[in-house]
Write a structure and sequence with these properties.
heterodimer, A: alpha/beta, Pyruvate-ferredoxin Oxidoreductase, domain 3, six-stranded mixed β-sheet, 8 helices, 6 strands, B: 604 residues, Rossmann fold, 4 domains, five-stranded parallel β-sheet, 20 helices, 18% strand, globular, binds thiamine diphosphate
Amino acid sequence: MEEKVTNVLLSGVGGQGTILASDILCSVFHEIGYDVKKSEVHGMAQRGGDVTTHFRFGKKVYSPLIKYGDADFLISFELLEGLRYINWVKKGGKVLLNHQEVYPPAVNLGKMKYPEDVARTFKKLFKGNAFVIKALDIAVKCGDARAINIVTLGAFSKFFDIKDEIWERNLLQHLPEKVHQLNLDAFREGKMAV
Amino acid sequence: MEKILQGNYAIARGAWEAGVKVACAYPGTPSSEIIFAISSQYKKDIQAEWSPNEKVALEVAIGASFAGARALACMKHVGLNVASDPFMTLSYTGVKGGLVIVVADDPYAHSSQNEQDSRHWARFGKVPMIEPSDSQECKDFTKLAFDLSEQFDTPVLMRTETRISHSFSPVLLEDRRESLIPIGLDLKDAPKYTMVPIYVRMRRVVVEERMKKLEAFADEFKYNVMEINDPKIGVITSGVCYNYAKEVFPNHSYLKLGMVWPLPKKIIREFFAKVKKVIIVEQLDPFLETEIRAMGYKIFHGKDVLPSLYEFNPEIIEKAIKGKRYKPPKERINVDELPKRPPNLCSACSHRPFFYALKKLGVFVFGDIGCYTLAAAPPLNAVHSTVCMGAGVGGAFGASKALGKEGLGKVCSVIGDSTFLHGGITPLMDIVYNKGNATTIILDNRTTGMTGLQEHPGTGFTITGEETNQIDLEVLVRALGVKHVRKVDPYHIKETMEVIKEEIERDEPSVIITVNGPCMLHRREKRKFEHPYYEIEIGNCRGCGMCLDIGCPAISWREVMGEEALTTDGHKRKGVVSINRLQCPGCGVCQQICKFESIVPGKA
Ligand SMILES: Cc1ncc(C[n+]2csc(CCOP(=O)(O)OP(=O)(O)O)c2C)c(N)n1
């Protein structure tokens, strides 16, 4: 096993399922023998604010929080929230972006503009290490817009050499039975998206 | 078996394994999950309750302990302020069944009205305090705390903070063991439990003796651990700070304190003998630092470089200690310029139209604590003070005393249903008793919204979902002597404004209670709106932005140019608004605000 700790930062907007995604990550990496820690960071409750989750795995993990500038991976479920954490990614780190915009209040009020060309900015700065997927479209195709987190997880799974069986079993453990097929589809479609 | 648990769930597990029989709490971030987990997973063995407030929670736990049961009370940091009265004297009576108080701090005030450091309560109350640093320790320390409590006949404080309570890590699960203390009350215990002066003075001696014994014990406590690596620098720390420091300075030596009060003075002396220089890493106040300096030691670094404000993280510690040697990571873009995403009231929340009405009336609102505090933010800006739970009710009375008759029509207090039952009843009693004229507005959204929708005595259900008595707020406030009680449907803005105006101008105490406005996230109670959603008649919209004043997440404005810059009937406009259908539950509040009738019901 690698000595070093791997840092995965997940960001998104309340209600996008960041927390479930990170729960699944925790159980997968724990199952294959790593120490894991994760921490959810959000302000006053969940009411539409931004949500980030720090997930870390390795032989022994101390801090529940990733050090600024030390993320090996950034998974963002929303473009602006991806941009907000761009500086957290270390040199050579990878970024997985869901191409979706959710307007924050200042944009809704017409006081500020939603940043343009976020995906391009990432491509320019990270080159081949930036991966952009349309998780929302895929999730809708699979039958439920809420599955964007699972689609994204599917895409993320491609960065690791872990058996599909492990991913899928852990995924299903976190979901009620009636949405099992839908989420399996979402996961598999997500894998094909990168 | 190993399972990944949130710190709070691990505490719940620890309580169960420790044989706890009674667990009480009032919700408060970041502590709320503990009792929730107990009530949902261990209800067969543990009687859990949402108490009306933290003081009651602790008092119920005290009674259970006196009767021989192991009992747990959980609260956020400010909750212990509310429970401090029983807490301070409980230190004298001691316990029978083990009694543990979990107090969860919130550095940076992620969801709190202040940032206090609960370690001071341990010193102040003369009781031991332990501090876990991950989920495994949350479980282990909870069990240990109960043993300590019985062994030393003392309540035990267990301090967590956001990053311990809300982080997840693996935990080894074990079985439950019932406590050996028999259940039962003994009349002969009276001198121990009755704190009248003569007995107080006797117990006072016991408390001091206990403290001495605990000090000796601290030096043997197996979770006060010395880790000697490079002896050049030693770090004294506890809780989550240990993990942050370990992360950035893996080679330093460490003294990790599992018990932060009383301090293990012998071990501290040994540590100073073993390392050259000592750094103290602690969040919030210089608690350890003050004590260790008082022992006569020189400290290399502590609060001279580490902040006393806000929450730590690995970077803050590294930067503070390394000083000029610290190299920040390269910034790719300036993220400070990005639009922020603060929390907001949900779309169609019943608080929104009510605060819009208050804003239109221009009254000074003594607010309180809950989701409705979000109305302090723009564009509503309709809450003008928030101190602590229940403070708004008395605050409005105090202001009306200061302003005299001039104040009529200018002030009111606004409080949520859960907060009213927590701490709003006594100040309302004061208004009536002392002949005030303040108006108290209870926003009854049928739940404790802010902290994640917990039941309370006004919802008619217990923590396990059993039906129970439901307080009728109107009957309650009338019993306090309030003669003018009005009920309003907050979604009708005009009517709401009229009622508020009449009541705040009245020279007598009055109460307004909102009805039919359950929290939008409520699972049981739902308001039926007339239409499935609303939309903008785009040709008609003047882009005036009136509807933006409510700060609804579903409504957005965009600039228009050229042909689009004219309405169908030829009025010039700079922009238009649109309603995101996916986010609009159809409350119709925006429609009442639009002067140009450009907002219309959408079709199903
Ligand atoms: C002494 C204390 N205990 C607990 C809390 C945590 N807390 C903040 S708001 C709130 C309750 C909010 O419920 P309610 O008054 O019904 O308003 P709502 O959020 O539903 O609008 C609680 C428990 C606190 N801030 N202070």
